């Protein structure tokens, strides 16, 4: 008999959670095409977090863990979906020779998921700054130095991988072919 009460008690809570999730997903979908606005919002959130950590003079371990996580996300964003060193797939692999057909660069971590993960990480780190249990005393210059060394080594490896397999993970939109523009002399000669 006790089990009969459980579904009715969890029903309204589950319905409320489902409604909140649906509204959140609606606004997330609406924000998808506005990448500049999304990144500007994340930049504001980042500045607020940095200002809070600076004013408190603490939570350096949280910031270090956040930096390691962001580095991991960056590597996923810069890496191809299928690594040519590990596996070869017919449709999604990178072109290896100049004679290979053009295949667009497909990221392991798409831009929207990259942005969403970064934003969630900064939100979680910001919330953690309100709990003193996460404020572990540490000599922060060592953590900062170690993070820069780790960043240098990781990016060096990633750049060498990009050079070896000849891909550029950053594109600036679709390239358009305008064709050969006719000069004024060409149009006068065609009229004759």
From TrEMBL:
InterPro entries: Rer1. One of its GO terms (cellular component) is endoplasmic reticulum. The keyword Transmembrane helix applies. It is found in: Membrane. One of its GO terms (biological process) is retrograde vesicle-mediated transport, Golgi to endoplasmic reticulum. The keyword Transmembrane applies. It is a multi-pass membrane protein. Pfam families: Rer1. The chain crosses the membrane at residues 36-55, 61-79, 138-155. Belongs to the RER1 family. Involved in the retrieval of endoplasmic reticulum membrane proteins from the early Golgi compartment. PANTHER family: PROTEIN RER1. This is Protein RER1. It comes from Zostera marina.
């Amino acid at each position: 008999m006790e089990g009969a009460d459980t579904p009715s008690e969890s029903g309204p809570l589950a319905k409320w959670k489902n409604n909140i999730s649906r509204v959140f997903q609606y606004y997330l979908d609406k924000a998808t095409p506005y990448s500049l606005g999304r990144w500007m919002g994340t930049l504001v959130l980042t500045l607020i977090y940095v200002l809070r950590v600076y004013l408190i003079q603490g939570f350096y371990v949280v910031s270090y863990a956040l930096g390691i996580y962001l580095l991991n996300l960056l590597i996923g964003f810069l890496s191809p979906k299928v690594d040519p060193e590990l596996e070869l797939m017919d449709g999604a692999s990178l072109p290896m020779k100049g004679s290979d057909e053009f295949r667009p660069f497909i990221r392991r971590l798409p831009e929207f998921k990259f942005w969403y993960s970064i934003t969630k990480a900064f939100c979680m780190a910001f919330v953690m700054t309100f709990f003193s249990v996460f404020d572990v005393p540490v000599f922060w210059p060592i953590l900062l130095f170690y993070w820069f060394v780790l960043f240098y080594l990781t990016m060096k490896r990633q750049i060498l991988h990009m050079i070896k397999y000849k891909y550029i993970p950053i594109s600036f939109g679709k390239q358009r072919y305008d064709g050969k523009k006719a000069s004024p002399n060409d149009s006068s000669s065609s009229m004759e």
